[in-house]
Design a protein that fits this description.
The chain is 39% helix and 14% strand. By secondary structure, it is α/β, with parallel strands linked by helices. The chain has a single domain, classed as Vaccinia Virus protein VP39 (Rossmann fold, 3-Layer(aba) Sandwich). α4 links the parallel β1 and β2. It binds S-adenosylmethionine (SAM). It comes from Nonomuraea harbinensis.
């Protein structure tokens, strides 16, 4: 797959997506400018600081579910800077002691921190572009860890919204060529469907984010995510919900559900044959209007 140069990259970018994300959450490996940008974003779209801890907690619950289902191998694409423990390999290994976990990111700073902090038996950090799955699947690091005939849990946490539709399609098509039936795909994704915010507010936050990071954000609806990301998959319960509402088990999370901005979350099992279905985000006014 060829990766086109990004026309949209801003020369003035002063944060990276990984550092700004860390500054919005509980990360420690970022700079002052990232903290300033995080505070500005939280002013433009009040509640922004809840997105990252909510997303990370949701991914932990999703990975715990995959481990409960007996999945022994994991690939986290666009893994981001290490967080306060437990990181995702630790969550998987609580249940599946010998789970193998591959973290992948294309940001060298993320990989340096990852190699230093995300250590343990069966844990690997690979610096690679997640848009080139075929190249990733040719690396020694991946091939020496992943058994391709067996189910894999692929974590796509807050990464696909950086890819164009064509890139998402290609990534998923290539992934599905490698994923055995019974594999799980865990997705969290930025969405413009934010009932408690005006579209101008969401747009302003997006403009600021793009300006500061140089990344382009593609906000997608539930149906767009279903069509682009999950053909051939069957979502696990509860289907498409906000990250906070994906099997919440912390009081903190149920408290923050109502009026915070959110990512859409879905965990799906890879099956065949491919089917097309209609999906709606549960628990929003949108659902009530359908
Ligand atoms: C917003 S962070 C999400 C981190 C983590 N997945 C989570 O949900 O908590 C996005 C991460 O994706 C990485 N990323 C963006 N584009 C990528 C690409 N093409 N290949 C690999 N990693 C990428 C960034 O460097 C960043 O660390």
């Amino acid at each position: 797959m060829s990766i086109p140069e990004r026309e949209h990259e801003h020369g003035s970018a002063n944060s990276t997506t990984a550092r700004l994300y860390g500054a919005l959450g509980y990360g420690k490996d970022h700079f002052k400018v990232d903290q300033t940008n995080a505070a500005a974003l939280d002013e433009i779209l009040p509640g922004m600081r809840l997105i990252v801890p909510g997303n990370r907690a949701c991914l932990r619950r999703m990975v715990a579910t995959a481990a409960d289902l007996g999945i022994r191998q994991y690939i986290d694409l666009g893994s981001g800077l290490p967080d306060q423990p437990p990181n995702l390999h630790e969550v998987a290994q609580r249940t599946v002691k010998d789970a193998r976990f591959i973290y992948v990111d294309n940001d060298p700073m993320v990989c340096t921190h990852g190699r230093a902090l995300l250590q343990g038996s069966g844990v690997t950090m690979i610096e690679a572009d997640a848009r080139d799955i075929c190249a990733l699947y040719r690396t020694y690091e991946l091939l020496s860890v992943i058994e391709t005939g067996r189910p894999v849990c692929v974590v796509l946490g807050a990464i696909l919204h950086f890819f164009t539709d064509d890139e998402v399609k290609e990534v998923m098509e290539e992934l599905y060529d490698f994923l055995a039936p019974g594999s799980l795909v865990l997705v969290t994704h930025a969405t413009s469907d934010q009932p408690h915010y005006r579209p101008e507010q969401v747009q302003a936050a997006r403009d600021f984010y793009e300006e500061q990071t140089g990344a382009q954000l593609y906000l997608r609806s539930v149906q767009e995510i279903a069509d682009l990301v999950l053909p051939g998959c069957v979502p696990l319960r509860p289907g498409f919900v906000t990250t906070a509402a994906w099997h919440p088990d912390y009081e903190y999370e149920s408290a923050m559900i109502p009026r915070a901005p959110y990512f859409t979350a879905v965990a799906a099992e890879v099956r065949r044959p491919v089917e097309t279905r209609q999906y709606f985000l549960l628990g929003t006014t949108q659902e009530a209007e359908q």
